[in-house]
Amino acid sequence: MSTEIPRTGEAWSRAELLARIVTETQRHYADYSRFSQAMADHVGLHPTDLQCVALLDMEPGPVSTGDIARLTGLTSGSATRLVDRMVKAGVVERHADPNDRRRSLVSLAPEARERIGAAWDVPGRAFGAVLEGYSDAELGVIADYLHRAAEVGRAQAVRLNTGDTA
Asked: What pTM, to 2 d.p., does this model score?
């Protein structure tokens, strides 16, 4: 397994850059999956629960279980079981939907938000330090790439889940 430091000061061909991006993306995915598992273990959650916590933390307010299914890619039944497990663990709270008495909304429990947020302090600073060496223009490119790559990932997940071969 190669983890050599990327060469600097040399011109890379476009083909070399594209190949490097593919390799580094695969490495990033594997390493981030490993990190996510370690963080989930550290805070006493399943990795899917931790993913749900991160997604709920980005939402502006409480969401439905259907929204959680959409955000995570889980089936509605799996999302319901996920929410049940997280309610039991005190990670999320259910609230009555003020606009529809038949459904409930889910939000992070304040204690869980604080506990999990504290666990992210050191890793958050470490990941932030990586970005400090980039110019604003470079950060714009990185943000644009991540946004576009996430859109492609979501679209490909839908394609794969629907059995579309195109």
From this structure: 0.83
